[in-house]
Specification:
The chain is mostly helical. It is built from 14 helices and 4 strands. It is found in: Cell membrane.
Length: about 325
């Protein structure tokens, strides 16, 4: 009898796992159906392109957060880091534009990638070498990055030079074969991240570190190295998002990226990645980012809930997602 029960449990487990993996996409489909019911223009080509393009920034950063969270850590500084990297990039491009012209955009992008990686490295070293809890460490750097961009902008904004706006514009507003450029960049980031996470030794070690750090160490895995690298990947993803984001507003302000850490963590969690680490769902993360942007868009199109309550709705979503994880487990 017990053997039969064991076999039944073994046959049910894969179904439960498949349900957990499909949950973000089912939720996204329900949001789309709800959007169609509440507003006929929700599924218009223009609106869908707008939702997908606007979700690209959160999706790219959330890809990096998937590495960090699956390794057993957390990063609360991504929104502030985004503002800081954006400010550094714009200052660099403005300084180089008189001599390099439009080529200053390329140099600014490279500087942004280096600054993002450096910020991620700092976070990683504070957590691993400093042995400070990720929540506290990144809470501290969140304040530092936000203070730096406020100081750099003198409490105002850092606008991009007008001569650079037109050549930079296609990176956000352009498209290739009808697909917005930010979406193509997001797809490329997801493909590279998926290969690293699911097809390389580092990806397996990242999961091992998040699943059980002590066992991973006994198995010869450098948990500190794995987690530091995850933070660097997070910083690179923030920089890539910043590169795509700058043409949208053409300036960096102290409020740039505000509350993005909430959206990023929410996208990762509702996508199926365990907040305690050990499991990662990249496609679910992307679906989570789409869900958040679709809900925000629907709140703007309909009059059911004020658009000023978007952050409150996102907070409710992350709580419900955590309850769902507990129920499934």
């Amino acid at each position: 009898m017990s053997s039969i029960a064991t076999q039944v449990g073994a046959t049910k487990a894969p179904a439960r796992i498949r349900l957990a993996e499909l949950a973000p996409f089912i939720a996204l489909a329900l949001v789309i159906v709800l959007g169609m019911a509440l507003n006929s223009s929700f599924l218009s080509g223009t609106n869908i392109a707008n939702v997908v393009t606007r979700s690209a920034f959160i999706a790219i950063i959330a890809v990096g957060a998937t590495f960090v969270i699956s390794s057993g850590c957390l990063d609360l500084s991504v929104g502030s880091m985004m503002a800081f990297v954006t400010g550094i990039m714009i200052l660099t491009m403005n300084r180089l534009e008189p001599t390099l012209g439009a080529n200053a955009i390329l140099v600014g992008a490279l500087v942004g990638l280096m600054v993002g990686a450096a910020c991620g490295l700092v976070n990683g070293l504070i957590v691993t070498i400093g042995r400070i809890e990720p929540f506290i460490a990144t809470l501290g750097t969140m304040g530092i990055f936000r203070a730096l961009i406020t100081w750099m902008s003198d409490g105002g904004s850092i606008p991009m030079d007008r001569a650079l706006r037109e050549p930079y514009r296609p990176l956000y507003f352009g498209n290739v074969l009808g697909i917005p450029v930010p979406v193509l960049i997001t797809i490329a980031v997801v493909l590279v991240a998926g290969f690293v996470l699911y097809r390389t030794r580092y990806g397996r070690r990242c999961m091992a570190a998040g699943s059980n750090a002590d066992v991973a160490r006994f198995s010869g895995v450098s948990v500190a190295g794995v987690r530091t690298a995850a933070y660097v990947i997070q910083g690179l993803c923030v920089a890539i998002a910043a590169i795509c984001y700058i043409p949208r507003l053409g300036a960096a302000t102290p409020t740039t990226g505000q509350l993005w850490e909430l959206q990023v963590i929410t996208a990762v969690v509702i996508g199926g990645t365990l907040l305690r680490g050990g499991r990662a769902r990249l496609l679910g993360t992307v679906a989570g980012a789409l869900i958040l942007e679709a809900i925000a868009n629907l709140m703007v199109l309909s009059n059911l809930v004020s658009e000023y309550l978007v952050a409150a709705v996102q907070g409710v979503i992350i709580i419900l997602a955590m309850l769902a994880h507990r129920f499934i487990r």
